[in-house]
Each structure stands twice: as structure tokens, then as C-alpha cells.
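Morning, I've got a small favour to ask if you have a moment. You're getting the sequence in one-letter code plus the fold written as C-alpha cells. Thanks so much in advance, here it is:

===
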Amino acid sequence: MKLVAAFLRLIRWPNLVFIVVTQCLFYYLITLTIFNNYTAVPVLSEKLFWFIVISSVFIAAAGYIINDYFDLNIDRVNKPDKLVVEKIIKRRWAIVWHLVLSFAGLVISTWVCIKMFDWHTLLAGTINLLCVIALWLYSTNYKRQLLIGNILISLLTAWTILILYVINTKSLFMTKIFYDIKHNYDMASTKLFKYAVLYAGFAFIISLIREVIKDMEDMEGDAKYGCKTMPIVWGIPATKVFTAVWLIVAVAALVIIQVYALYLGWWWSAAYCFVTIIIPLLWILKKLYQAQVAKDYHQLSTAIKLVMLAGILSMVFFKIYS
């Protein structure tokens, strides 16, 4: 049981649950609702959707493993009490599990691509392969460089949503063959694109903010092993300004979206967003200015994750108001 618990910690099981929840809400509450409203049939069936979810979870889990594999020395400084690799699970087994999960994730996504066979699905499968490569490069190199690693992880976070749009969009040629009501399908696809960009953009910005805050939290161990993260290269004050700017951008964008929601009569949705997302982001902005030690930044990182969860759960209101 101790080994199982350690493995679950290694693959960050709460984050994997977060991925499953995100993709399920986007598929069942937004994708299916939009296509039903336009009397169109989504390209991605429910069965194949679950294979995409499993593929996403396997690739993400493999990424967490390889990150801990290469971060062993840094983690001995930043979080010695949370070490799993070498302390409980040997490094050779960590790399084996990384390879197994990466391979399984790619095989599953490739199988879905072959099953659906369209250039959009082939694109999704190719990007999943690039995700595996990117996670390896992030762990071995990019994580220790200025901003590149932060942006890469934020893009990968956004991709968990975008993949469901990409794989749900058929090419014009395939659409003409398999859909009688092409106009309705195109309208549904266009609307799905708007929501995919909206939620993927939110995920990207919030993830970027959290990644930079985590760099401030882990500054001691990163500096000891030659990392060139933002707080090390620019200093804490400049890094706080960078983070604050993105927090303000997020708040401003959310306020504009909620004004539009109020115009549509989505009162409960707007109230939910203000209470659970906008106000907490303003609180985080205030606390960011006051933060001084690693414990403060850890608190902010946790708060950001809760805000991201609140943002993803807001998909429920699309189902209610549609």
C-alpha cells in the first residue's frame, strides 16, 4: 500500500482527476449541448472520447514522473518531505513507468486517429506526440530556462481543452460525405471553437501565473542547481510585476465576459464568476504584493489552482442557460 500511495503521489493523481473533470465537463456540457442545439452530430463519439481522456491522463502522468526523475536534486532542497523518486520508488522504475505511460498514451490517441481518420484527428495525434517530447524537453532543459518552461506548460494545459475541439472538427471533404445538414454542423463547430478558445485561454493564463508563482516558491533549490528561472534572472520584484500584469489581464477579460453574460441574462453565471474567480484573483493580487517566503507563494499557488477549478466548473452554467 505504501508503494501504491507513493506512485499516486508521483503521478499527481489530483491533477489527473482535474484533467478528467475538465475534459468531461467540456465534452458533456458544452460540446454535446452545442451540437444538440444545432441538431448536428459531434464527430467524437462518447466511446472514443473516453479513450482521448485516458490518453491525456497517461501522457500527463508520464510527464509528472519524468519531471520528478530529473528534479531529484532540486526537490531534495525545495520539498525533501515529499520525495518519492529514489526515496520510495527507484529511479530506474520511474523511467520505466514514464516510457510505459507515454507509449500507452500515444498508442491510444493514434488508435483514435486511425478510427476516425481525418486530417484534424491526425493533427491531434501528432500534437500529442509533440506533447510527450515537450514534457521530456521541459524536464531536462526548458524548466531551468527563463520563461520557456512556464509558457510550454501553460500551452500543454490549454491543449487538454483544445484537443476536444480539434478532434471534433471534420475537414470540408469529410463533412460533405458524412453530414446531411452541413450548415448546422458548421454553425455548431464555429460556436464550439469560441468556447474552446475561451476556456483554453483562461487555462493558459491561470497556468502561466501559477507556474511563475511556483518558481518564486522553489527559488532556493533552483538557484542552487543553476536554473535560470524568472525570479533568479529578473529578481522577485520584477517577477511580481510580471505576475500582477497577467492577473490584471485575467480579471479585465473576465469582467468583460461577465458584462456580456449579464446582457444575455446569465445572472447566476455572472454572480458565480465574480464570487469564485474575479474576487479571489484580486485577493491573490493583493497577497502577491505581501508575499515574502516560500510558504506565502505556496499558499498563492494553491489558491490559483482553486480558481482554475472554479473556472472549469463554470461550464455547468452553459448547460443551464442553453
